[in-house]
Amino acid sequence: MQGLIEFTQMIISGVATGCIYAIVALGFVLIYKASEIVNFAQGDLMMLGAFLGFSFITLLGMPFYLGLMLALACMALIGALLDRVVLRPMAGQPVFAIVIITIGIGFVIRAVVISVPGWGTETYGIATPYSGGVTTLGGLVISNEHLAIIGATLALVIVLYLFFRFTMLGVAMQATSQNQLAAYYVGVPVKSILSMIWAISAATAALVGILLAPITFVHVNMGFIGLKAFPAAVIGGFGSLPGAVVGGLIIGVVEALAGFYLPEGFKDIAAYVLMLLVLAVRPKGLFAQSVAKKV
Amino acid sequence: MHVPMKTSYNEDIRLIRQRGTLVWYALLALALLAAPFYLGEHHLSQLSFVGIYAIAGLGAMLLVGYTGQVSLGQAAFLAIGAYTEAILQKAGVPFAASLVLAGVMAGLTGAILSLSTARLAGIYLAIATLAFAFIVEEVLTRWESLTNGSLGILVKRIQVGGFTFDAEWKFYYLSTGLLVLVLWLMINLLRSRTGRALTAMRDSEISAQSLGIHLARYKAIVLALSGALTGVAGALYAHRIQFITPDQFTIMASVELLVLVVVGGLGSLHGAVFGAVFIVMLPQFIVLLRDAFGISSTYQAGLDAGVYGLLMVLFMLFEPHGIYGRWQKIKLYLDIFPFYRKATFRRQRMFQKSEQLR
């Protein structure tokens, strides 16, 4: 019985970590679906969002939820600006050019965060109204931070589902992601749709950053977690929103189990090993949508 | 503009097409040969690094510039080459053999990696190679009995027979000589059947496939070759630095090699060399910049990241063909003055259909 509880405990903390990966992966997938751009700067956007949240909440002393909303809004604006200024001129260029440009954006964001006075390379925390406490359920003990992450992920997934399924804008975004030219012909303003998708993606990144803050603290290198979200997105099949969530959960749980049952060191690479194995069997991920590209 | 009139097939496949070029290359060779006589220790060691980076850059260029396969894991090959060399030298294997083995080892790893990545394209490959680099880095850190973990390995100087490469100029000749050898191999590889297949794959995988090019096999070949070249560079690097730890081969090193090929000029051998010169000079340029603006050294890390990032973004936006591309434009401008038109090199956009067809 004790073993079972321990196991469940581990699964739950794995699921919480997996939720983080899932939201970051959602950010990748949103942009990829809409514009076939893979945003290597997603992790750094998340870091920037966390720093913005830290500034609003801790430095300026705003209430938590107001600061959160402000940070999300700022990041949405930054996301849209990035699309307008840097990525729109690159439309129609080869994949590697865009990969390189997004890596470059990531570096620039890191440079900005390091050089802003009051941010720098120190480690900070954000005080949240829910942090510190635990919830007990039978024999299980779940920290409130983990609960908040799981809850926020659920809420985000539901909101995104409703948005893409039932709103005019969401349907227009789906049309854009399926065929930009056709969408343009039927009157979808493709360019501003793309900017909006970047805004949503950057805002979700900020959300993860702030949710993660009580657990890993706010730091310049927290963006590296974005690199763990790649396997999540890839396992899920890069073009699929549910796939990203499932991929994130799989990675989180596998990592938690590997940390417990395997020797030290395997935890950090479990995600990548798993991804290479999945790619060897299914080159387009588990939930692949795509067929061969036409010439 | 010089328009050559070719009268025989041999003329068409000659390595150096025009007599004028030959003169310039002869002058360059002379300048390089005589370098130890007029350059100080510091500049010579910089030139040795250019040789090492250029070899690694050629490996990356083959993969990214000629085959269109973006790799974010070149650091792994560099690490495997460096560690193989260090371990073999400890075991008493002579340099000539261990250098080749370092290349073979990295090449084999590339071939094994391609088992998992051969069917991947574009972004999946970039992420898979990134994952591979993380795994290699972790293995090097954890396999302490072999690699001494994060404490690192001391690497002795190169010894061939009774001759020790103990002075800067000796190492300089070695690295430059190897670079010339690798360049010559690359030129010949690129005009062989394999090289043409690689370029065809870059331009369109589907049309390459329909011309009978076995995509998976050629991807394995190119990954192995690129790995081998980068591995050789890694072996040289180990000897030059004389001390290797796993954290010299992080994702930053991979990104550095990517910057090298992008800034140098994708799809050109000149580009790899220009890029290497650029990468070696960049840290000094950053220090100059820092001093000029009076930025305190606490911001060093931010400045490094910022300069790398901005360079990548700006080059991709404004000069996607890199330094070599810019040089070609200037040359053409002078050649056909005053008839140069801006549109000569206009970038073509491809409004391709989505990959996500149902």
Tally of DSSP β-strands of chain B: 4
**What oligomerization state is this entry in?**
heterodimer
Radius of gyration of chain B: 21 Å
CATH-level-2 architecture of chain A: Orthogonal Bundle
Q: Give the spatial strand order of the biggest sheet of chain B.
A: 1-4
Along the chain, the helix and strand elements of chain B come as HHHHHHHEEEHHHHEHHHH
Helical/strand content category of chain A: mainly alpha
Q: Average the pLDDT over all residues of chain B and give the rounded result.
A: 86
Shape of chain A: globular
Give an overview of the whole structure:
Chain A is an all-alpha fold. Helix content of chain A is 72%, strand content 3%. Chain A has a two-stranded antiparallel ribbon. In chain A, helix 3 (64-87) crosses helix 8 (190-216), helix 9 (225-236) packs across helix 10 (241-261) and helix 9 (225-236) packs parallel to helix 11. Chain A is globular. Chain A starts with a helix and ends in a 14-residue tail after the last helix. Helix content of chain B is 71%, strand content 2%. Chain B is globular and about 65 Å long. With 358 residues, chain B is mainly α. Chain B has 15 helices and four strands. Chain B has one domain (40-341). Chains A and B meet through helix 4, helix 9 and helix 11 of A and helix 5, helix 6, helix 12 and helix 14 of B.
Keywords for this structure?
heterodimer; A: 295 residues; ABC transporter involved in vitamin B12 uptake, BtuC; 11 helices; globular; disordered C terminus; B: two-stranded antiparallel sheet; two-stranded antiparallel sheet; 15 helices; 4 strands; 2% strand
SSE order and pairing:
The complex is a heterodimer of chains A (295) and B (358).
Chain A: H1 2-35, H2 42-59, H3 64-87, H4 95-115, E1 134-137, E2 140-143, H5 144-166, H6 168-178, H7 180-185, H8 190-216, H9 225-236, H10 241-261, H11 266-281
Antiparallel strand pairs in A: 1-2
Helix pairs in contact in A: 1-5, 1-6, 1-8, 1-9, 1-10, 2-3, 2-4, 2-8, 3-8, 5-6, 5-8, 6-8, 9-10, 9-11, 10-11
Chain B: H1 9-13, H2 19-38, H3 41-66, H4 74-90, H5 95-117, H6 122-142, H7 144-147, E1 153-154, E2 159-160, E3 163-164, H8 168-190, H9 193-203, H10 205-210, H11 215-241, E4 243-244, H12 251-264, H13 269-293, H14 300-318, H15 322-335
Antiparallel strand pairs in B: 1-4, 2-3
Helix pairs in contact in B: 3-8, 3-11, 3-12, 3-13, 4-5, 4-6, 4-11, 5-11, 9-11, 12-13, 12-14, 12-15, 13-15
